[in-house]
Write a structure and sequence with these properties.
Layout lengths: L2 E7 L5 H5 L1 H7 L3 E4 L3 E7 L2 E8 L4 H9 L4 H14 L7 E9 L2 E10 L5 E2 H6 L5 H16 L2 E3 L7 E5 L4 E5 L5 E3 L4 H5 L1
Length: 191
């Protein structure tokens, strides 16, 4: 059985970090979020990173992601770069790693800089009446994304990180593997 490692980084000096991501992830106990996938906070040298480990897909998907479609980790990396290039805030993408074996994808990881935030949309919607200003600003941010042909297909309450300042509200979008970048109908944007 031959195992093939795919990795790409926006920073060349992080190659040793990416090559050891599997063991670093296993050794880390700082879980940020865990459901179907798991995200951990990992320190390397003088920086802190968010590392998302994607659940190994079913047999059919393992073949598709290894041979015909970009992996979720790769899409997260590429889509995050597109967001930043469009002026939309997301944690700076660092790289992705996937392990392929016998024409099937196995483990895969997406790595970004860790983003400190005050709260996410869960807090906003749990305290709806107190946060109408945040909700209004969020709607304007989503409209701006749609006006720039950016559609985030996974805008759950935990995928929008928020920092509130005296004169502005900053939104940071995460979990970017399910996005499209194309003109779309107004009704699609509403959905």
């Amino acid at each position: 059985m031959k195992k093939k490692l795919h990795h790409k980084s926006a920073k060349a000096d992080l190659k040793p970090f990416l090559l050891s991501i599997d063991s670093l992830f296993n050794d880390s106990s700082e879980v940020v979020h865990h459901d179907r996938n798991c995200t951990k906070k990992i320190k390397f040298k003088d920086s802190t990173y968010a590392v998302k480990s994607f659940k190994i897909p079913n047999y059919f998907q393992r073949v598709i992601y290894a041979n015909f479609r970009k992996s979720k980790a790769r899409r997260s990396f590429e889509n995050s770069l597109k967001l930043l290039n469009s002026g939309i805030n997301t944690p700076e993408p660092v790289g992705y790693v996937s392990f392929n074996n016998n024409f099937m994808i196995g483990k895969s990881f997406y790595i970004s800089n860790y983003h400190n935030f005050e709260f996410d949309l869960r807090y906003v919607f749990d305290n709806f009446k107190k946060n109408t200003e945040v909700i209004s600003s969020f709607i304007k941010q989503v409209i701006l994304m749609h006006d720039n042909d950016i559609y985030h297909h996974d805008l759950t309450r935990q995928n929008v990180l928020i920092n509130k300042f005296e004169n502005r509200i900053d939104f940071c979008f995460i979990d970017n593997n399910r996005m499209s970048f194309k003109k779309s109908k107004f009704s699609n944007g509403l959905k």
